[in-house]
Design a protein that fits this description.
The complex is a heterodimer of chains A (62) and B (412).
Chain A (H helix, E strand, L loop, with lengths): L1 E4 L9 H5 L4 E3 L5 E3 L8 H10 L5 E4 L1
Antiparallel strand pairs in A: 1-4, 2-3
Chain B lengths: L5 E5 L3 H12 L5 E6 L14 H4 L4 H4 L11 E4 L3 E5 L4 E4 L4 E3 L2 E4 L3 E3 L5 E2 L14 E2 L4 H10 L5 E5 L3 H12 L3 E6 L6 H4 L1 H13 L3 E4 L3 E6 L10 E6 L4 E3 L2 E4 L3 E3 L15 E2 L12 E3 L4 E3 L9 E2 L4 H17 L15 E6 L2 E7 L8 E6 L5 E7 L2 E8 L5 H10 L2
Parallel strand pairs in B: 1-2, 1-7, 2-3, 7-20, 9-14, 10-17, 11-12, 11-17, 12-13, 19-21
Antiparallel strand pairs in B: 4-5, 5-6, 8-18, 14-15, 15-16, 21-22, 23-24, 24-27, 25-26, 26-27
Helix pairs in contact in B: 1-8
The structure holds flavin-adenine dinucleotide (FAD) and iron/sulfur cluster.
Flavin-adenine dinucleotide binds next to helix 1, strand 2, helix 8 and strand 23 of chain B.
Chain lengths: 62, 412
């Protein structure tokens, strides 16, 4: 599974972090960092992260 | 299963979409029909008062991703649900079609409240007043119409100092309009934020040139004389204290009204949205659930008082729980083991300011403390009830959000 966050759209809300902390994190500068190719076992969490992103900035490619 | 079962979703926006997804995730293989009176597939509303309003408003940019799991949902768009007979398990559509169902999801949300005022150009008459130039912000079409009038130099009057009013004020100001906000409260965003933070945000707006006329309401709209109510254009407003304000654009952001009319005649409590039990079932009606802004539910995290919550996180949270309840009522799943108890989450963007709210600040309005930072910069404000933290609001400080969210989630 491949995760892409449109960083021009992302506003560092961090909602994705609550849904999938293994994949998304807010760093000390308040910016989003994420794992681009997370393990398949995290799919549900990543799907949820994509759903709860207020900017709908996260896409998942299989 | 003998014949195919059908679940009807009334309202095809975020709540309706999330409900469809959760019903499929819960293993429902029957027919799902989602009926929406807007001509669009579900789209994201928050940008309509923020970035979309500042740029260009297109459905393409705002549409929610449609997961493969909901590819076979039958979307009936541009048609309204006109009525429902819950005993007969049937809905009637605006085009006269009748549709029976096994399960019903109420997801018709809210619409903006409008100001119905006397027409000052026709003394003694209560006409709706001038119409052109008066706006609300709920749909793509609303935002497009407003966007077209937010030119540099436009004179914008915002009625209402809640989140949507303040966001529109910020966006309009950024686009170069002059902006005046009128509201009955003495402080913007008073109820959700409390007086201290509300006043601090007012200063931020004023620094950028937004004028506030608070503690008063709009008594009448002023319009070009002519056939008032028939296309005449608004030129300003007269306030409750007699002040006259010139305006060529008015934005009414004075709260919302639940779209419950279609449920009338079924003996439901529709006094404020749709009253639900702690599993989001509509008042003990098996096979009928409500999701999103329209659902009034108790949150055992705080107390037993049923409330509606107009937060973006709620359609997703309610759909998750309501789908289980509905499938259990249809005998297709085990009911949820615990009552619905979401952590309310809200955000607002005004200029470059990011507000994030977790929990229920409004319940902790009598004991508000600055937890970190200061009110005129980046700040974390805590709202307490009986000494316990029930809500936090952060302005900026994104890296602290997870910590305070956890604190709110643990408390209560
Ligand atoms: C401008 C704006 C900005 C916002 N900003 C934020 C924000 O920054 N942060 C935040 O947390 N929340 C925000 N919100 C709130 C959030 O968008 C809502 O909570 C969310 O949209 C609710 O979704 P819903 O599906 O319950 O209701 P809605 O989105 O209102 O959907 C209801 C749908 O049902 C349709 N409908 C109504 N009656 C009928 C009928 N009889 N038959 C068929 N269809 C019908 C409606 O047309 C609509 O399409 C904002 C809302 C708006 C309008
Ligand atoms: S939720 Fe969306 S906007 Fe927020 S940090 Fe994650 S990707 Fe960015």
């Amino acid at each position: 599974m491949k995760v892409i966050v449109d960083m021009d759209v992302c506003k560092d809300h961090g909602q994705c972090v609550f849904a999938a902390p293994e994949v998304f994190q807010i760093n000390e500068n308040g910016r989003l960092v994420y794992v681009a190719e997370p393990d398949e076992s995290l799919r549900d969490a990543v799907e949820e992260a994509a759903d709860v992103c207020p900017l709908q900035a996260i896409t998942i490619e299989d | 299963m003998g014949t195919t079962r059908r679940i009807v979703i009334a309202g095809a926006s975020m709540g309706g979409l999330r409900a469809a997804e959760r019903l499929r995730a819960g293993g429902f293989t029957g027919e799902i029909v989602a009926i929406g009176d807007e001509p669009h597939l579900p789209y994201n509303r928050p940008p309509l008062s923020k970035e979309a309003l500042a740029t260009e408003v297109t459905h393409e940019a705002l549409a929610f991703r449609l997961r493969p799991a909901v590819a076979d949902v039958a979307w009936r768009l541009g048609v309204r649900v006109a009525g429902a007979d819950l005993d007969a398990r049937a809905v009637r559509l605006g085009d006269g079609t009748e549709l029976t169902y096994d399960g019903l999801v109420v997801a018709t949300g809210m619409r903006p409240r409008r100001l119905h005022l006397a027409d000052s150009t026709r003394p003694g008459q209560t006409r709706p007043g001038p119409v052109t130039g008066r706006h609300v912000v709920r749909t793509i079409e609303d935002a497009r119409a407003l966007r077209a009038e937010l030119r540099p130099g436009a004179n914008v009057l915002v009625a209402g100092a809640g989140f949507i009013g303040c966001e529109v004020a910020a966006t309009a100001r950024t686009l170069g309009a002059s902006v005046t906000v009128v509201a009955p409260e003495d402080v913007p965003m008073l109820r959700p934020l409390g007086p201290g933070l509300g006043a601090a945000l007012r200063r931020r707006h004023e620094e950028r040139g937004v004028a506030f006329l608070l503690g008063r309401t709009i008594a009448a709209f002023l319009g070009e004389t002519g056939r008032a109510g028939e296309g005449s254009r608004v030129t300003g407003a007269e306030l409750s204290d007699g002040t006259r304000v010139a305006a060529d654009v008015v934005v009414e952001a004075v709260g919302s009204v639940a779209n419950t009319e279609w449920l009338a005649g079924n003996g439901l409590d529709l006094s404020d949205g749709v009253l639900c039990d702690d599993a989001l079932r509509v008042e003990g009606r098996r096979g009928v659930v409500a999701v999103g802004d329209i659902a009034r539910f108790p949150n055992p995290r705080y107390d037993e008082v049923p409330r509606r919550v107009e937060h973006w996180s709620i359609p997703t949270d309610t759909a998750r729980h309501a789908a289980i309840t509905l499938l259990a009522d249809l005998g297709l799943a085990e009911p949820a083991a615990t009552p619905f108890a979401p952590l309310p989450t809200f955000w607002s963007d005004q200029y470059e300011l990011r507000l994030q709210s977790f929990g229920a600040p409004a319940l902790g309005g009598s004991d508000i403390r600055v937890l970190e930072g200061d009110l005129d910069g980046e700040v974390v404000v805590g709202y307490h009830r009986d000494g316990e933290l029930v809500g936090v609001v952060l302005v900026g400080m994104p890296s602290a959000a997870a910590r305070y969210r956890a604190a709110c989630s643990a408390a209560a």
